[in-house]
Amino acid sequence: MKIINTTKPILVDELYEYLKDNLNRQFREHKKENIDFDLLLNGQTITIQKPDLYDGFLFRLTTTGSTTLEVAKSEHYVDDVNVLTLESVLDDLFVKHLGATAPQI
Prior knowledge:
Elements: E1 2-5, H1 12-31, E2 38-42, E3 45-49, E4 57-65, E5 68-73, H2 81-98
Antiparallel strand pairs: 1-5, 2-3, 3-4, 4-5
Helix pairs in contact: 1-2
């Protein structure tokens, strides 16, 4: 699990909408494949998954403070090229949207 500190307060509903608007588009730009990931919001946690390709979650993002985000990455797909691309996209989006100071997951 990685802890990401941000310079802006994290509002989980706002982060969820931002990721819904940008994650899949940016992934397609990087990977040149038409894969869309599902984002689920449950309380203070956003889960990223792709059930038709992967069992379970790929990433789980949980706000644990006003400027702290915990990022759990599935241990089952650490070397998968789609997951590595998704990780890079998330890092970029965290910097752009939250002012993340240590975005490497």
